[in-house]
Amino acid sequence: MLSLVEVIIPRVKCMFVMTGCESPSVCRFIRQLKAEGKDIDIVRPRKTLKQVFAEYGFPLVSKKVSHQIQCVRRNPYCQSSRELLRRDNKYCIPERWMYLLNEPYEVSARCCHWLKHLPAYDYGNQTGRHPYIGLLAHESYQRTLGYIQQGGCNFFGSDGKQHPRSLPLAIWTDEDVWAYIRDRGLKLPDIYEKGARRTGCMGCGFGAHINSDGIDTLKRLWPKWYDLIMSYENNGVTYGEALTKAINRAHGNDNSI
After folding, report:
1. Would you say 107 and 74 are in contact if contact means Cβ atoms under 8 Å apart?
2. Could you tell me the pTM of the whole model?
3. What confidence tens digit (pLDDT) does each residue in 14-31 have?
């Protein structure tokens, strides 16, 4: 995305959130770009991953399911919670994830808010800048829906609630991205040379029951960091225990580790 934007703005200001969940490979790459002269501000979130897990709970299954579970556990008697529990409602919590309502630990998608969204909002408010964001609309249902609601790649804050922003890669596919990288010979973090096809928050539980590549990469390349993240607790239960149970449930095994 930076290469694409630089076609029009040769020295565009960049911002990178050091979330504590990015791979060491990506962090080294950002520092390398900064050392080479890229105008990059590195910011940090208000809370650490360990604090977010302890205060709000673990990211399990998906953002949607985690949010649903959190809503019902907070107020099981409100109308929206009753709708989420109705078996004849197609938007209800899937049966296999209902067990999360009674687990001793909390489930939440708040890590995205504290570690990524809020630092970006803080930076925008402090600097008055508006972002280019490298999201691809096809990556999830929520991102596709958000792109449709935005009305295109560029949004100018016309709803009075959200800030202007641009998503120049929104209509791209993964194949488009890799073709652009190959055609222009762009440098990448060395994690891609070690078998990764994409990066993100290392150790994230969203989608891990379907594809555990991110978890597996973290465990294979940085085992001590993997052990640390899996040891973080909420209400006396470790993230590793909760994540393993969710993965086992998805594959028809009700046992935890």
Report:
1. no
2. 0.88
3. 999 999 899 999 999 999
